[in-house]
């Protein structure tokens, strides 16, 4: 990888880190379905909760995903260097937040399995602007071109094991909306002097 390519990748990583903070905040405020309202532009976004391989601290990472034949797939676009990917390779038990559901599951790299390229194509097509930022047009690319462009990517299958409920999942900060409404209503109805 040339120095220019490395700089571009670092810049792209930093942009995604900032965007991911916004996406995670929206999911925590109960706006996960809203985040996914325009998938052709924004992409289909889920949140993956994983365990840090060194710290054993729970981490949350927003990721693009696709559901293919009822199964959830995502990609590590920065390959094996992605922290979340390295974490799930050590601790494969994860949780995923999807629009309207929350699941415990098991993550597995299926990059080398039969049919992986078509599943990779589906995830990239579902990634909206992120795929375009990476220079990928999965709808028009030949299999050979897609395989070459994604040779460093990793395809991950999340097998959903058990539906989850509780306070520490999607919408854990949704209490903010009633509180904000209560605090802002007096301002709306206050008479101006």
Descriptive tags:
single chain; 6-stranded antiparallel barrel; alpha+beta; 7 helices; 193 residues; Pnp Oxidase, Chain A; 38% helix
Structural summary, described in words:
- By secondary structure, the chain is α+β, with helices and mostly antiparallel strands.
- The protein has a single domain (3-189), classed as Electron Transport, Fmn-binding Protein, Chain A (Pnp Oxidase, Chain A).
- Helices cover 38% and strands 25% of the residues.
- The chain has 7 helices and 6 strands, in the order ααβββαββαααβα.
- A 6-stranded antiparallel beta barrel has the order 1-2-3-6-5-4.
- A hairpin with a 6-residue loop joins β1 and β2.
- The protein is globular.
- The chain starts with a helix and ends with a helix.
- The model has no long low-confidence stretch (mean pLDDT 86).
Main sheet: strand order: 1-2-3-6-5-4
CATH top level assignment: Mainly Beta
Uncertain spans: none
Q: How many E-type strands?
A: 6
SSE order, one letter for each helix or strand: HHEEEHEEHHHEH
Give the CATH topology.
Answer: Pnp Oxidase, Chain A
